[in-house]
Design brief:
The complex is a heterodimer of chains A (421) and B (601). With 421 residues, chain A is α/β, with parallel strands linked by helices. Chain A has helices at 53-71, 91-104, 124-132, 147-152, 159-171, 190-202, 220-226, 236-252, 271-277, 304-309, 326-337, 346-353, 357-360, 362-370, 385-389, 391-415, and strands at 6-7, 22-23, 25-31, 33-34, 46-47, 75-83, 106-117, 137-143, 177-183, 207-212, 256-259, 262-264, 282-285, 290-293, 296-299, 319-323, 344-345, 374-376, 380-383. Chain A folds into two domains: 19-277, Alpha-Beta Barrel (TIM Barrel); 326-415, Arc Repressor Mutant, subunit A (Orthogonal Bundle), CATH 1.10.10. Chain A contains 16 helices and 19 strands. Chain A has a nine-stranded mixed sheet with strand order 11-12-10-9-8-7-6-3-13, with helices on both faces. In chain A, strands 14-15-16 form a three-stranded antiparallel sheet, with no helix packed on it. In chain A, strands 17-19-18 form a three-stranded antiparallel sheet. In chain A, helix 14 (362-370) runs antiparallel to helix 16 (391-415). The longest helix of chain A is centred in the C-terminal third of the chain and has 25 residues, at 391-415. The chains are: A alpha/beta (421), B alpha+beta (601). Chains A and B meet through strand 10, helix 8, strand 14, helix 11 and helix 16 of A and helix 14 of B.
Chain lengths: 421, 601
């Protein structure tokens, strides 16, 4: 994927960026609807709002138009309907949103257009309509192929429904399917995970996401695990075997790991997620969605009422963090890029920031390389498989070195106020 | 020499084992004599420090003057001197006893006589005090007053037939106590026309008046305007005010022989008001000072460091404030590679150390790391010089040491017979040398000579656990003896961690080293790399453990475009690391130091 697609965009009278070359973007559309919230979920999503679906779709369309008016008619390389449960929307509603997207932006002919969905919410008619609207990738939240575990974490579907969902999607014309799986569930053992993985692989998806469960404070699962009301989380040894099983079984089935939790058949990596990991620009619309556009970060309110009340033109209701500092940007490039097995594009880093990775973090890069956690090839700096396992530690070291340098630079300035060069 | 004024004075203290009800009885006496209305009472009213109330212990001595109209129709002045009740403060207790003629001995009717009770009784007998036993807690179902009465007679050898049976908690028998005090205790003696001799039995720092002395006037008089001299330190001051405490300040014209009260003389430094010193009239000095003065010296030392290095100055201020009120606390700056900047502090004993660190943490809101307590070792070097070493890091290289000596104490342990075996084993393990064993009714007193360093290392806990809480102990310092001592170092990732170095007996080094290594392995969190932990004497490794590398530490979750959330999680992790001590390439949480340093064997 090209790092930057540059070209003259359509000029918009309200955009302060009309003089600039405009970047190609990715578009994220958040659908915060669920039949029922899962016990582990801390994302912005609501159950019992089905009656307001139309309202919500209209608000999103309004926002898309307003953002396009502000940022100009960008090229869009990927679209991602995330949730929540986007498959709770009808074919007509998705079609309407895609119509507005195409009306406002240049959706590239080869664009990857993904929809997330819950296996318990699919029907043939809608699937065909999504496909007709241009959706070409389906990401199904299967999580487990064990009905007891599914019930324990509050999922509304069964393993059988997951199997049926994949078959139905194939029939509807989806040639690019991802299955989301979770491991490290309460009471789960390595054998159960192996079975789930084998069954999922047996459904022959093009892509697999295997996330280990992270207990988030404030979720029902967090409370019940801490209160000992449900089975305990698997211990370290079990998690270790689950990790090993994941690598082994995916590789044997022809999937290669390209990110911490993501595995794909050749050329089936998720292009939308790669945009995040490469720190390329994206526009997020919908409740609680985050954007990183033209080096500005902003996000929408995560409360239903406040989002619906956004008039579209009122960009002030978006919460922004303004522009990030160069230092933060450099760090984020590492934080996101190192998640990929191929690592960070060193040349692009130098082009974008005017300095090399080694010059920003000389100590950490040297130390991590010496400790065999990090390595590099001609184009990229990447983590070794062991480095990948302890990535947080590597990232914290990068943070610390940057912080130390910040202090160092400051003291240099303080101690030499009179130097002129 | 007794005169009519002095006939109406009784100076007494209350002695008791911890928890036998000393402070509660004091509360009742104050209430009964109208010093406080019942509604004003809080529990343990004399223990004004939060810590004293909470722990049920008295840390500072205090004196309160009460008026009591006795059954004989006369009104008596009762001076109650509340004393600390712990071995760490033995000297302070002895000075307070020297200020009294009588003592109420409170014995818990459910517990009986304990080691500390005895230690305090012996001390009271040494000062010729009239001891009135008081049997407390008789309201409890498990009370056995008759047994305890005969225990007192057998073990202590004083007549307990008339001992008041009371419950300080519910206020039962308090009149009997007051009547007994008036009837049985002798009034003070002393020549009020002789030159002034006032015994300082405690002092405290008042922010407005400076250091104030609690005194017992042994002879002569003292009044405002008089120039006084501290006979042992030689310092002179002009008296600003004299009076009694009830328990607020009650100034009066003068204090005369037999009286107990306070002297304020704008004394800036509490170190000029040494407990045990004699105050005299600078213009008309007494021929000699009162007996028994000695300068108290710290026996137990440890390093105190702020968890957050930025708190160093706050810690310094706090220690200075505490020293204002505590002449026995010493400290000097010290640096540790592992812990940064802090102070080497000296204490009278373990309880004193614990109290000071707790006060620093609570009253000054500091997070602290304290190193393992140490004693002063005498190091005799080959070149003939002698070094006092209270910090293992200051020990000279082995090659330069000819031999070393460590402080020894005489320990007495009082226990019911069934625990004798277990306790003797404990003492043996603590390098104790058995002296003798004395039967006291159904109980036994064991006498051992032991290294102080062993006493300060979890001895109390062991005595308690091996006797199910029934044994008690007391000790006194008696001198230095040669010992085969070595310096035990702990190495993390090959680097010596100075905060964990200690001086131990050769025979104990292996066990100690191994248990610390094991403990460290448990408390040091797994990190990116494997961390070897070693215990070593000189260059020789005697134990080794390994902290395995962490399995996985990665955000295995998709946060979509919310990059900030990811970064914040890492920032939190980074901040967590800041609370850790960096030792070479190893991060050790402050809690780990504390866990290791507090370790039981």
């Amino acid at each position: 994927m090209k790092s930057l697609r540059r070209g003259l965009g359509t000029q918009s009278p309200t955009s302060p960026f009309r003089e600039e070359y405009m970047e190609t973007i990715s578009l994220y559309i958040h659908i915060p609807l669920c039949v029922k919230k899962c016990a582990y979920c801390d994302f912005a999503s609501f159950s019992g709002r089905m009656a307001q679906r139309d309202c919500y779709v209209q608000a999103v369309c309004r926002e898309i138009r307003a953002q396009a008016a502000f940022f100009g008619r960008r090229r869009v390389a990927t679209v991602f309907f995330g949730g929540g449960t986007p498959t709770l929307l009808s074919g007509a509603q998705i079609t309407e949103m895609m119509r507005v997207v195409r009306e406002c932006f240049d959706v590239l002919p080869d664009a990857e257009i993904t929809m997330e969905g819950n296996p318990g919410t699919l029907d043939m008619e809608n699937l065909r309509a999504y496909r007709a609207a241009g959706v070409n990738r389906l990401s199904l939240g299967v999580q487990s192929m064990d009905d007891k575990l599914l019930a324990a974490i509050g999922r509304i579907h069964t393993a059988k429904e997951a199997e049926d969902a994949v078959a139905m999607a194939r029939k509807a014309g989806f040639e690019n399917i991802n299955l989301d799986l979770m491991y490290g569930l309460p009471g789960q053992n390595a054998i159960q995970w192996k079975e789930t993985l084998q069954k999922a692989i047996g459904l022959a998806p093009e892509h697999l996401s295997c996330y280990s469960l992270i207990l988030e404070e404030g979720t029902p699962l967090y409370d019940s695990v801490n209160a000992g009301e449900c089975a305990p989380l698997p211990d370290e040894e079990t998690m270790e075997s689950m990790d090993a099983l994941t690598l082994e079984l995916t590789a044997a089935a022809g999937y290669s790991q390209y990110e911490v939790s993501n595995y794909a058949k050749p050329d089936r990596q998720c292009r939308h997620n790669i945009v995040y990991w490469e720190c390329l620009p994206y526009l997020g619309v919908g409740l609680g969605a985050h954007s990183d556009m033209d080096r500005r970060r902003f996000y929408n309110p995560a409360e239903w009422e406040s989002y619906l009340q956004m008039t579209g033109n009122d960009a002030a209701q978006r919460k922004g963090e303004g522009s990030c500092s160069q230092q933060e940007r450099m760090f984020e490039r590492m934080m996101m890029g190192l998640r990929q097995t191929r690592g960070v594009d060193a040349a692009r880093f130098e082009r974008d920031f005017g300095c090399t990775i080694e010059s920003v973090w000389p100590e950490t890069i040297a130390q991590m390389t010496r400790k065999k956690l990090m390595t590099s090839n001609k184009e990229r700096i990447l983590l070794t498989p062991r480095g990948m396992q302890v990535m947080n530690g590597v990232l914290v070291s990068l943070m610390e070195e940057a912080e130390k340098q910040g202090i160092y630079e400051k003291t240099l300035i303080d101690s030499k106020p009179q130097t002129d060069d | 020499m007794a005169n009519e004024r002095m006939d109406k004075i009784r100076n007494f203290c209350i002695i008791a084992h911890i928890d036998h009800g000393k402070s509660t009885l004091a509360d009742r006496l104050l209430e009964k004599t109208g010093v406080y209305e019942k509604r004003e009472m809080v529990e343990q009213i004399l223990d004004s420090m939060e810590l004293e109330r909470e722990r049920g212990i008295t840390i500072k001595s205090k004196a309160v003057t009460m008026k009591y109209k006795a059954n004989d129709g006369e009104t008596y002045t009762l001076n109650l001197i509340d004393t600390p009740g712990h071995v760490d403060f033995t000297y302070e207790v002895s000075r307070a006893l020297a200020a009294c003629e009588g003592a109420l001995l409170v014995v818990d009717s459910t517990q009986g006589v304990e080691a500390q009770t005895l230690a305090n009784v012996y001390m009271a007998l040494e000062h010729d005090l009239e001891i009135i036993p008081v049997i407390n807690k008789i309201d409890l179902p498990s009370a056995r007053p008759d047994e305890v009465r005969s225990e007192i007679e057998e073990i202590i050898g004083i007549d307990a037939s008339n001992a008041p049976l009371i419950s300080a908690k519910v206020g039962l028998g308090i009149d009997d106590v007051l009547e007994s005090a008036v009837k049985m205790m002798p009034p003070p003696e002393g020549d009020e026309d002789a030159p002034l001799q006032a015994l300082i039995f405690d002092s405290f720092y008042d922010n407005y008046r400076g250091a104030i002395c609690y005194v017992r006037i042994v002879s002569g008089k003292v009044r405002a305007g008089m120039r006084i001299r501290m006979m042992n330190t030689g310092a002179c001051f002009d008296v600003v005010e004299v009076g009694t405490r009830s328990p607020g300040y009650a100034p009066c014209d003068e204090l005369r022989a037999g009286d107990v009260g306070y002297i304020a003389a704008s004394i800036k430094d509490i170190h000029d008001t040494r407990v045990g010193d004699t105050i005299t009239d600078d213009a008309n000095p007494a021929a000699e000072s009162l007996p028994g003065y000695r300068q108290v010296t710290p026996m137990v030392f440890c390093g105190i460091y702020p968890v957050d290095g930025a708190d160093y100055e706050n810690l310094k201020d706090a220690l200075e404030k505490l020293r204002l009120n505590d002449a026995s606390l010493t400290f000097e700056p010290e640096t540790s590679q592992a812990l940064g900047y802090g102070f080497r502090c000296g204490f009278l004993g373990l309880l004193h150390m614990e109290i000071i660190t707790m006060r620093l943490e609570r009253e000054f809101d500091l997070d602290l790391i304290t190193t393992a307590p140490s004693v002063i070792y005498k190091v005799f070097k080959s070149d003939g010089t002698v070094l006092d070493v209270d910090n293992p890091s200051n020990l000279p290289p082995i090659g330069e040491i000819e031999h070393m000596e460590e402080p020894f104490v005489k320990a007495s342990i009082h226990t019911p017979q069934e625990y004798v075996g277990a306790l003797m084993e404990t003492c043996q393990n603590k390098r104790g040398v058995f002296k003798d064993m004395v039967y006291e009714g159904s109980r036994v007193c064991l006498h051992y000579e032991m290294p102080l360093s062993e006493i300060i290392f979890d001895f109390f806990d062991q005595i308690k656990s091996r006797s199910r809480g029934y044994a008690s102990y007391d000790y006194e310092f008696f001198g230095y003896q040669e010992s085969e001592l070595v310096k035990l170092d702990m190495l993390l990732n090959g680097d010596i961690c100075d905060a964990l170095s200690m001086i131990v007996h050769k025979d104990r080094a292996y066990t100690r080293g191994r248990s610390i290594a094991e403990k460290l392995k448990d408390v040091i969190p797994r990190q990116m790399f494997e961390i070897p932990i070693q215990a070593a004497i000189g260059g020789k490794v005697i134990a080794r453990e390994t902290v395995k590398a962490m399995r996985k530490d990665v955000l295995a979750k998709c946060y979509g475009g919310d990059i900030t959330r990811k970064r914040k999680l890492l920032e939190k992790q980074k901040e967590g690391k800041k609370r850790m001590r960096q030792l070479g390439s190893v991060q050790v949480p402050s809690e780990a130091f504390m866990a290791v340093l507090k370790m039981d064997e």
